[in-house]
Amino acid sequence: MEEQKIKEVTWQQTKIRNAEEYQNKIFDSLNNQSYVSKKDKRITLTNGDEYTEFISCSYLGLDQDVRILTAASRNLERAGFSFSSARTRMKYSGLDELENLLNQVFMASTVCFSTVHLVHLGLIPLLGSGEIPGFKIRSAPHFILDKYVHASIQINRGLMTQFGNVSLVDFNEVDSLLKIIKSTSSEGNTPILICDSVGSMGSTANIKLLVELIKQYDGYLYLDDAHGMSTFGTHGNGYAMMVLEDVLDDRIILTTSLSKAFGTYGGLAIVKNPKAAEFIKKFCSTYIFSGSLATPLIEASIVSAKIHLSEEIYQLQDAVSDNLLLFDTIISPNIRIINRNSAVSIRGWYIGGEFEAITAGEYLKEHGILATVATYPSTPKHQSLIRFGICSNHTEAEIIKLCTLINLK
């Protein structure tokens, strides 16, 4: 008789089973919306209903800039929509122009990917190998992840275990973080700290402390700055670069998104050493085999990069700041707001219970406003909130209406 092995419940099964009841209800009543048109923050759904949306993370409104939209059709007849080949063999020349512009934005070396997911999936094994120039590994890596780092990174934990140990730590608990870094270093291994610069719910990392730790214990820092891009920093180079005072340390790999405030599409890896960037282009599987960005996306991104390199980027940043100030001024002090008085473009109306948060989201929808209901697993259990992306092209009237509805609830 063959012995039957009892299959253990996996982490993915546990997460699905714990979240299924909430996610099914959100999907039925608030998510899975389809729009047919948008103008600034007014959006029309397939059923003809119009809403003001606070869902989009295009914080500077560049996704609707006429210059960027016009650029998307440039060179289509001459260069085609895309070239179906690994980009290491053939790529559209505009990609070189885009990376040159982005190098100026970040004052470092950039590599363009199709998505940020593919940046993480390709870079993590390269980093774990110890072969990237300037990122040598002693003995073995120990990947130390902030427990709140984005899901697009956390899902690669199994991949990380092929190279070394993996630990989840709350980076806000400095003593616990320091303890595991010291232990890793004393064992002769390399600590690799991984976190978001700006969390998807708006929290910010203590980047200066993390840089001190990796220098002291001969480690590296892997930062995802997707929500900090464009709204912060010189040339809109992001929250991390602002904290680093525009000098990317050679122990840091910075990643970010072109699909949020930048206003177009794609992911970026940014490194100090040009040799590291060239290595990534030669050996990163998701860069080589995912295909290049489509020509319209490259042309649109070139225009956005030029806007970032102009004085206009600071006007757009100021417009976001003005709207954040308006929100924080009008909202009642009795309402629990995540990131109140923060420079981050995300505000959260803290609700707590999952079904209560869904009800609050439905209440806003009934009054013409669409927002993101964030429940487990996006947030810890029973810590649900309604997330609002405050953007430069929200009108004063739209923000006043949102705050009034929240204050009345």
UniProtKB/TrEMBL annotation:
Keywords: Aminotransferase, Transferase. It comes from Aquella oligotrophica. GO terms for molecular function: pyridoxal phosphate binding; transaminase activity. SUPFAM superfamilies: PLP-dependent transferases. Its cofactor is pyridoxal 5'-phosphate. This is Putative 8-amino-7-oxononanoate synthase. Residues 171-404 form the Aminotransferase class I/classII large domain. Transmembrane segments: none annotated. InterPro entries: Aminotransferase_I/II_large (IPR004839), AON_synthase_class-II (IPR050087), PyrdxlP-dep_Trfase (IPR015424), PyrdxlP-dep_Trfase_major (IPR015421), PyrdxlP-dep_Trfase_small (IPR015422).
